[in-house]
Fold this protein.
Amino acid sequence: VLPPSISRHNSPCSPHFLPALLNRGLMHSGDEDIIIVCRKADAFALACAVARCYPLFNQKYQRSTGSRTITIEFYLTDDRSTVLTSEDIAVMDAAACGIRNACYIVDAPCNMMQTTHFVKEARRIAELLKTKVVVIEGEELNKKGFGGIYGVGKAATAPPALVVLSHTPRHATKTFAWVGKGIVYDTGGLCIKTKTGMPGMKRDCGGAAAILGAFYAAVSQGFSQNLHAILCLAENAVGPNATRPDDIHTMYSGYTVEINNTDAEGRLVLSDGVYYALKNLKADVILDMATLTGAQAIATGLYHGALLTNQESWETAAMTAGRACGDLVHPVPYAPELHFPEFNSAVADMVNSVLNRGNAQVSCAGLFIGKHIGWDYRGAWIHIDMAAPAYCGERATGYGVALLLTLFGFASQSPLLRSLSTDM
């Protein structure tokens, strides 16, 4: 266990090192047994770390088609009365399932995980959980005023979509909305990426994938409050109908956006998603998660997602949850009066890309999204940019699933998640 005097911003059990150790020692063929010695407080983070070692997506010709059993045994170093209950094991199993499914979506290339495939996956999860699902796609998005999602995805062969999964228990008193960026492929649009900058852009749906995985795990283990997963799905493609620089789009919020960079598309789809959470769902807490900016890796590194929020209590809770589960976050400045002027436009309410990339670019990108629910929004808004932590090497990490489960664990029926979470 890392002492606070040595490392203040890492998980005490250093779960990031576990996959490296396991991948060196595992044969990845046949059944395997893994023994972990740890405190009970670290078991959830380490279980999630193990789940990342067993990705589901594999299209190799010689791939194994047989079933395998991976057994994980925990030896707890607490006192003898401390045990992992069946409920604890169930929530770790659900989290592992959510992480591996999120990794599958991110690892799959666009020809196998188009918006239409993503919608089918969301419907499958909704059917498993017996929850309501709403899908608005294609021209219906345009007719209903979703100028951000429609504008980004209208050039692709597969239609853009807004997918909303809703868990609404009878005695709920609060409403939480998780909004995910689901760009299944990002060419950059007409501001096209380079031949070396484009490979890997299948991962631009990491936020939506994590939210879908976390929604499955949270609801399957019992969640006491209203919970909505909003997936903003599109392919940022090049074609005759592609959005041009200088085009002006009217967003679902009513704000107009002058496009000065078609490769700053994630904030456009998310802005429609967060305003839907405010207007249609009356959410008390709105969290958006996205592989939003390359600048995130510069600001907070490869392991910590960038955290931007209008409430300090949620900032503290998110950092605590990140250290508890292994999905680390670190705050970036929240100062709309200093950073939002970077989006000034002469002809519209705002442009979509900053004028000065040296002025807190990660904060600016998040504030673009926050503007659409308003600086006077009385609820909590949390933005997590997880562009770098979403993958490691050539594989997705499922980052975000464990973080959401832990951050909102106070509303879970799982005693383990409640013990790791801050009561909000």
